[in-house]
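Continued from yesterday's entry.
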Amino acid sequence: MQLEDMQSAGDKNARRDVRSATADEVRFGGFRYLPDQSLLLKDGKRVRIGSRALCLLKLLIDNAGQFVSNDTLIAGAWPNTHVDDTNLRVQMTALRRLLSVDGDSCELRTRRVAAMR
């Protein structure tokens, strides 16, 4: 999964290094994410989002512009717990719906990889 085109509050034309631990907020689309408060706002209003989806969003923001493996997302959102990929798909679908703006698709991208066993 990959989250693209994040902007800082101060410079809307530049891409922000979201790996900075001192970031007060991250802006993307009509959203503001306040990591210190674990809060997501849309047009200034609080967005109802579950803790797992918020954790996944934080992981994607922390790795903005990079693809994040399913294993990494699962380990971050469900630490020390064995869960099926289906749990991740359900949460990512909910996150995509939440981040879609006026019917436009959100900024989450999925890379399909062929795997052999």
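--- second protein ---
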Amino acid sequence: MSVVQLISRAAENRSWVSANCGNLTENCHDRWVVVLDKTVVDNDKDLQKLADRSRKRLNKRFAEVAVEYVTQKPLVMVLDLSATRGLR
């Protein structure tokens, strides 16, 4: 499978997570989920454990997954503009 195909499949899985966020929060609230082929294949509160387990289980297909945090809490983004000071 080409790199473009892998990126496309991962993007499809991320889109599926966004489209199904409501259903996911009912079953996987405040947990990390791994989605492959538009299906939740694993979830855990600990991202490192989930990633390690998923890499072993999915092997080469791990490159196709979406790994997303599912929560009902509002998303807060923090921007660090300190690195752009010299660009003015």
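The chain has a mean pLDDT of 88. The chain is about 40% helix and 20% strand. Will compare against the first tomorrow.
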